[in-house]
Amino acid sequence: MKKYIYTIGLLLSVLLVSCKEEATTSEINLDPVAVTVKKVQLGTQAGNIQVSGKTQAVKSADLGTRMMGFVDKVLVKVGERVTKGQLLMIINSDDLKAKEAQVVAKIKAAEIAYKNATNDLKRFQNLFKKKSATQKELENIEAQFHLAKANYEAALEMKKEIKAQLSYTHILAPFNGVITSSRVKEGTLAHPGQPIISIEDQSTFEVLATVPENEITSIDKTKEVKLYVKSINRNYRGKLTELSASAKNSNGQYLVKVQVLDPDKNIRSGMFVNASIFSSEKRSADKIEVPVSAIVQKGQLKGIYTISQSGTAILRWLRLGEENNGQVEVLSGLSEGEQFIISSEGKLFNGVGITIK
């Protein structure tokens, strides 16, 4: 009986091992996965000039006042949208209003004196024609008339000056935009020429960057500039609008401005940008870039599938650099001439057979 049980157990063990081997053989003999590959190439090509810069609004203004005075009212908050001509802030103008009242009184007195001098001049001109007044008397009256007229005109000019000064106590929005900063509070003393409130139009943005002198002559102004804002992981198209003709005041770097052609609500002033400016010169491609879509990430590790000598897929871990326009720089892990897989029609894993399309 014991011999019979032992024989059955042995047969079951053989069957289990056979099934296991069959399953393993079935897993290894999967159909090859069709893939598209690309070869790492270094050579001369029409390259791009890589520069960095910052975004800024095309239209912005730092507003201040020409008059010293305490801030009476701040009518807007940072982040608030305003329209052109909207009152933003009021500076105390009690002193100016007192001067204005004095000038108004002076205008009235000067106007009366001017009218009296005009009437006196007409009367003496008639008397002179009738030989009832001397030439000297007429000249004296004419002098009094011109003096009264000059005093009246000067008083009117003083009123205009006061009006202009009063206008500086009312800070108005020069265009439609958004308040980006307010440097004073109610009761703060505002000084002439000091920026106290800032506004910018966030519908149009540009990138301010610098280009080294050895690159400046190769820039092709007719080509679009590729922009990448890393903080929001977005790509934009740009147009070169300004190119400095001198680096005298910028330490050998030439300033360039690139208008963002397709801005959206995500972009803000002050964001760092990587700009790729088209160069008309042929240059060596001294770095390796691969599509971001081909990168495989497992935890903190990132890699890409390459092809082994036996024609199977093998995952190669990489050290990566900056991303730009859907490409990522490979700092180590790939060499010139090696092939890597950029897409596949099935699931890839280490050791799976592949066929190249």
Q: Looking at CATH, which topology of the largest domain would you report?
A: Helix Hairpins
Mean pLDDT metric = 85
Rg over CA atoms, rounded to whole Å, is 41 Å
Q: Based on the structure given, which CATH architecture of the largest domain is correct?
A: Orthogonal Bundle
* Unreliable residue runs: 1-29
Q: How much beta, percentage-wise?
A: 35-45%
Number of domains: 4
CATH top level of the largest domain is Mainly Alpha
Written description of the protein model:
The structure is a single chain. 27% of the residues lie in helices and 40% in strands. By secondary structure, it is of the alpha+beta class. It has four domains: 1-29; 30-44 and 288-356, conserved putative lor/sdh protein from methanococcus maripaludis s2 fold (Beta Barrel), CATH 2.40.420; 48-59 and 201-284, Efflux pump adaptor protein, beta barrel domain (Elongation Factor Tu (Ef-tu), domain 3, Beta Barrel); 61-172, Helix hairpin bin (Helix Hairpins), CATH 1.10.287. Strand 16 and strand 17 form a beta hairpin. The two termini are 62 Å apart.
How do you describe this structure in short?
The chain has 357 residues and is of the alpha+beta class. Helices cover 27% and strands 40% of the residues.
Notable characteristics:
357 residues, alpha+beta, conserved putative lor/sdh protein from methanococcus maripaludis s2 fold, Elongation Factor Tu (Ef-tu), domain 3, 4 domains, six-stranded antiparallel β-barrel, four-stranded antiparallel sheet, 27% helix, disordered N terminus
